[in-house]
Amino acid sequence: MKKEKFNVFGMTCSACSANVTAVVSKLDGVKSAQVNLLAKELVAEYDEGLVKPEDIISAITKIGYKAFLQDEQGSVGKKNNFKQKWDMRKKESERETKELKIRFYYSIGFLTVLMYISMGSMVGLPLPSLISQSSNPMLWAFTQFLLSLPILILNRKFFVVGFKALYHLKPNMDSLVAIGSGASLLYGIFALYRMMYALNLGDTETIHHYSHQLYFESAAMILALVTLGKYLEAKSKGKTGEALEKLIDLAPKTARILENGEERIINAEDIKKGDIIVIRPGESIPADGKIIEGRGFLDESSITGESLPVEKAEGDEVITATVNKNGSFNMMAEKVGDDTTLAQIVKLVDEAGNSKAPIARLADEVSLWFVPAVIAISIVTLFVWLFMGEGFEFAFSCAVSVLVISCPCALGLATPVAIMVGTGKAAELGILVKSAQSLETLSKIDTVILDKTGTITEGSPIVTDIIPMKKSLSEKEFLRLAYAIENKSEHPLAQAVIARAKEENIPLEDAEEFLVIPGKGASAKISGRDYVTGSLKLFKELLGAENTAKLEEKIESIAQMGKTPLIFAQGREILGIIAVADALKPTSAYAIKLLKDMGRDVIMLTGDNRTTAAAIAKQVGIEHIMSEVLPSDKEKCVREEQEKGHKVVMVGDGINDSPALTRADVGIAVGKGTDIAIESADVVLMKDSLFDIVTSLNLSTAVIKNIRMNLFWALFYNVLCIPLAAGILYYPFKLHLNPMFGALAMSLSSVCVVTNALRLRFFKDDSGKEFKDKLLSAEIAKREAKKETPKEENKTEEFKMKKTVSIEGMMCMHCVSHVDQALRGLENVTDVKVSLENKNAEVFSDADIPDEKIKSAVKNAGYEATSVKLS
Questions:
Q1: What is the H or E stretch that residue 602 is in?
Q2: Residue 30: is its pLDDT beyond 80?
Q3: Cβ atoms 450, 605 nearer than 8 A
Q4: Per-residue pLDDT tens over the stretch 56-66
């Protein structure tokens, strides 16, 4: 099976997308077809042996639309990156919006004159006798016809697309507008001919009668108002991708690379794997890589949502679009272009926004029969009123009103707009949702299964207690001996002891004859004396059960606190115990409380023994525990909960969690998890915090609530307005809807749906806000105590003064490099940032540099400095 994307042009409503989906799905060999009305894209999965892309394009073309296979090759033969494709999509959207704006402005201009002539006399507005209804009805009518023609020509797209779709028996919204407006125009022309015929006969009564049934203003008004609605809709839809656009714009446009000992500025898209990139204070990271020299404090909030800068040093990984707040370093590019973390996030968010949620199936099913049903209702309305004895004018007006008030657009936009805004908002919050289905399923979750290690806990054990049991032995001396023994071991618990010793600057003593006792412990010689470390089981074998009774009581109390005891002895004498535990994440307990308050059942899944698991669960407030679970049985535990009728979300981070993540209704991987876990998950949390599970559930609920509101409005609107347009209130209340007001209502219904979806941009999750603020304050205090937090007012210590130089003459990146080198050659300059886009340079210095010197340096480089301003 092969999956391809096609651009489909000409779609205007949900009926269009439903028709394209239906015609492609019917082709032999096509497994699935998904159309996104907003992105104007078709994603088709098909068997290459049975169907070709050309067959799919041909099938779409036959029903009146244009389709193209998305071109993966750029104009110079290299693969386009996502940003280029996004820019192309944005330009197309802007072109469409501009075209609609021009069409509307010209239409409203002609329409204003037309309405003045056709209805001005009703409110006492003066008209020349040449085109007055009373004195010259023929010229009055013919002038209206002439004024309506430019509006019809400007908006001919409705007729071209609408009648083509109707010809192929796949009518859409354009078909409704074309029939309604076209019928009004044709009836107006018929009335004009009747007036001409009556004029020859001198029949003034007939002329007067038909002068009130011209409908030219209705035909023009319908087109103008629908175009207005389309214009407002296009403007609103343009805002749905704002979150994605913000992500794309995070990546810097240029980078400073080190080549043969010299710095050179290049376009960020030209960075190659292995390039050495120089990062200075205030600059964004242009590629994923590792620091090879220097250190800095990186603001990762744009990617992970982490509010405080993170210190990075040699060997640490850095991510594209994060900002270096302080310090300078050189890094080696490892992932560039579309392989960077940012590019993958953007691609993921775009695909999720363009995917289809199960809740959208109702709209798709309704859309298939909606337009044919409306046409049928319009015809029935015409004949029913004629049968009831009403005049043709009234019956015709009701039939046209039914056509133009019906709105399949609102139905089609109800789901995709909310999904696109919702997934974009989630990305802003550091939550990557891979599909619309996952977003919808999250709102139905009633059970949350949390893997203990790395999810509830930090995932790396630390020493919590050092307990010497020999009176003459101090904690420091005991740790020194433990450090010497464990330094030879590769066990994770031994690494915790080593880390604690290094933290306390304990000197390392050499241990000899180190021997691992499989599954039990280890032994070694220090200064000629024998030492042993291990579990209670080992010491029962060495000392006998009767000699370890007190030790066993001590160890049992440690285990009940969720800690793992390491026993150390010299010969047969117990020296002490070091307790090691996988520390809880500071957010775990409160996040779990919030999940329970939301009515979700929380279960902890762990391979630990029952005692340790119960101790951890008690600390975080979890009542339901699945302990001593083998890695291979995690998937079984999830399946058992699903068989009980629960909707389950599984949260994990390890390789052994991936089957369970796949089995769950929604799998959530934490950002620091393994690649396999992240690949298996439906949702990825970029921050290492359980609060984001709460946020994702709340956001999902808000999105689905928004979609239901949109669907209700779209269905309620049509159910209410179609009978109203058909004249159901005419007999009891003498109320009759003019087709012009019907067109206005139809236009505004789509705008209302899109505007309602855009409210999701302002989603805020305030659950646990006070607790989060306390955590943040504590972290800031901790960093300030260690003098690690760079002060906001002094984001870089390398300059005291900043001047902005406006420069004329820069045309390319070579120009940027020349200006950069010229300005760096000035005395006291600490940093320079040259922008080709803004045609300026920012000069940072530790002392004042005369403006003339700066201008002279720029001039010597071959360019003109038009102004120098102190920033």
A1: strand 601-605
A2: yes
A3: yes
A4: 999 998 887 88
Residue 79 has pLDDT above 50, yes or no: no
Residues 204, 207, 211, 213, Cα dihedral to 10°: 130
Q: CA-CA distance, 229 to 221, in Å (whole number)?
A: 12
219-273 tens-digit pLDDT: 888 888 888 877 877 776 666 666 667 777 788 888 999 988 888 889 888 899 9
Q: How far is the C-alpha of 806 from the C-alpha of 866, rounded, in Å? A: 6
Q: 223-238 in b/e burial notation, b at 16+ Cβ within 10 A?
A: bbbbbbbbbbbbebbb
Q: What long-range pairs does 789-794 form, CB within 8 A, spacing at least 24?
A: 789/297, 789/308, 789/309, 790/297, 790/309, 790/325, 790/326
**CB within 8 A of 240, min separation 6: which ones?**
38, 353, 417, 420, 421, 424, 754, 757, 758
Among 82, 386, 117, 109, residue whose Cα is nearest residue 251: 82
Per DSSP, the three-state class of 213 is coil
Cα(482)–Cα(570) distance, integer angstroms: 11
74-77 CB contacts, 8 Å cutoff, 24+ apart: none
Report yes or no: 612 and 593 within 8 Å, Cβ to Cβ: no
Is a pLDDT exceeding 80 seen at residue 793?
no
| pLDDT of 77 above 50 | no
What one-character DSSP code corresponds to residue 65? -
Q: Is 55 a catalytic residue?
A: no
pLDDT band at 184 (very low <50, low <70, confident <90, very high): confident
CA dihedral sign of residues 457, 461, 464, 468:
positive
DSSP 8-state secondary structure symbol assigned to residue 508: P
Give the Å distances, CA to CA, from 101 to 89, 159, 748, 824: 18, 19, 16, 48
- 165, with CB counted inside 10 A (0-12, 13-18, 19+), is buried
Tell me which residue of 458, 666, 698, 688 sits closest to 594, measured CA to CA.
698
721: CB partners within 8 A, 6+ apart:
405, 406, 742, 745
Q: pLDDT tens for residues 356-380?
A: 677 766 666 776 688 888 889 999 9
> Is the predicted pLDDT of residue 76 greater than 60, yes or no?
no
Strands 829-835 and 801-808: unpaired
For residue 532, list its beta bridge partners: 523, 569
How far is residue 702's CA from residue 832's CA, in Å, rounded to a whole number?
46
Residue reference for tokens 């192929």: 168
pLDDT (0 to 100) of residue 656: 65
Q: In this predicted model, what pLDDT tens digit does every residue of 668-715 receive, in sequence order?
A: 988 664 455 567 788 888 877 888 999 999 999 999 999 889 888 877
CA 302 – CA 319 distance, rounded (Å): 10
Structure tokens at 465: 């207690």
Q: How far apart are the C-alpha atoms of 584 and 775, rounded to whole Å?
A: 14
Mean per-residue pLDDT, 399-420: 79
pLDDT digits (tens, 9 = 90+) for 588-625: 899 999 999 999 999 999 877 787 788 888 889 999 99
Percent of the chain with pLDDT over 70: 89
C-alpha distances out from residue 499 to 462, 765, 776, Å: 8, 37, 26
Catalytic one of 288, 350, 451, 765 = 451
Q: Which amino acid is at 870?
A: L
User: What is the DSSP-derived secondary structure letter of residue 456?
Assistant: I
Query: 598 is written with which tokens?
Result: 């939301």
> How does pLDDT run across 290-307, given as a tens digit for each residue?
999 998 888 887 776 666
Q: 686: closest CA among 451, 428, 462, 468?
A: 428
Is there a contact between 74 and 50 (Cβ–Cβ < 8 Å)? no
Coil/strand/helix, residue 430: coil
Cβ atoms of 284 and 331 closer than 8 Å: no
